[in-house]
């Protein structure tokens, strides 16, 4: 069984995350996604809200194989711990692929016990607009024991930051915009969006 593991800050989750999940669902037996805290970042919204938005993202998805699920109990800010939990869930024999966007390849060597992590997973890198994949960065990961594949998908040119900082609702799907309004999240961004709409 081939399992794709995809962790995200989901602050908030975007159409870019959804496209990646759709692509993975067509290529893996099971796709597990969770909302995570990231030790290198601060987050604007509570983890529970971010997980709830991720569930809306999956519910909105056409996944003909119905093989994508938010598995929130995998969440940890150390991905090594996530993989340990995944192994308890699906066993040692499953093949685990850790999915990251190309914006993370330079920070990956600084992740918690990265060599141990790379021993236990294959790494799938999704190219992201604006974040080229330098051969030297790949070499650094390979030197740490990484087994790397590059996805044939290029991610959408959207980000959670674009929503948080500029109120770019193009990045979001409608049910998540509705949830944000209903729960009064990202209040500054909401005001920014309204200002843009009033112009
Ligand atoms: N559009 C995209 N294309 C490729 N990879 C992406 C894209 N959006 C997110 N990812 C990847 O998905 C994972 C989760 O991303 P994350 O939740 O940090 O989204 P983000 O848009 O980068 O958020 P932020 O702007 O807050 O950093 C990371 O591995 C990231 O590289
Ligand atoms: O294990 C680590 O040290 C580590 C360091 C930074 C990020 N991560 C994980 O990387 C995933 C993507 O994070 P983010 O914030 O880019 O969405 C998420 O699952 C984080 O928990 C993990």
From TrEMBL:
Keywords: ATP-binding, NAD, Nucleotide-binding, Nucleotidyltransferase, Pyridine nucleotide biosynthesis, Transferase. One of its GO terms (molecular function) is nicotinate-nucleotide adenylyltransferase activity. Pathway: Cofactor biosynthesis; NAD(+) biosynthesis; deamido-NAD(+) from nicotinate D-ribonucleotide: step 1/1. One of its GO terms (biological process) is NAD+ biosynthetic process. Pfam families: CTP_transf_like. The keyword Transferase applies. It catalyses: nicotinate beta-D-ribonucleotide + ATP + H(+) = deamido-NAD(+) + diphosphate. Residues 5-165 form the Cytidyltransferase-like domain. Its EC number is 2.7.7.18. Catalyzes the reversible adenylation of nicotinate mononucleotide (NaMN) to nicotinic acid adenine dinucleotide (NaAD). Belongs to the NadD family. This is Probable nicotinate-nucleotide adenylyltransferase. It comes from Anabaenopsis circularis NIES-21. The lineage of its organism: Bacteria, Bacillati, Cyanobacteriota, Cyanophyceae, Nostocales.
């Amino acid at each position: 069984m081939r399992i794709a593991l995809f962790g995200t800050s989901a602050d908030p989750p975007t159409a870019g995350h959804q496209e990646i999940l759709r692509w993975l669902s067509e290529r893996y037996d099971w796709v597990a996604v969770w909302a995570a805290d990231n030790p290198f970042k601060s987050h604007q919204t509570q983890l529970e809200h971010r997980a709830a938005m991720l569930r809306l993202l999956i519910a909105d998805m056409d996944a003909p194989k119905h093989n994508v699920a938010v598995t929130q109990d995998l969440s940890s800010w150390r991905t090594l711990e996530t993989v340990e939990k995944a192994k308890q869930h699906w066993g040692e024999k499953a093949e685990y692929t850790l999915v990251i966007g190309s914006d993370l390849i330079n920070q990956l060597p600084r992740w918690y016990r990265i060599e141990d992590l790379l021993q236990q997973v294959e790494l799938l890198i999704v190219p992201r607009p604006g974040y080229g994949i330098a051969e030297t960065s790949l070499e650094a990961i390979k030197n740490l024991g990484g087994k790397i594949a590059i996805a044939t998908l290029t991610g959408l040119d959207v980000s959670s930051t674009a929503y948080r900082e500029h109120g770019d609702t193009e990045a979001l799907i409608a049910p998540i915009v509705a949830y944000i309004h209903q729960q009064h999240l990202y209040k500054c961004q909401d005001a920014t969006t309204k200002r843009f709409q009033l112009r």
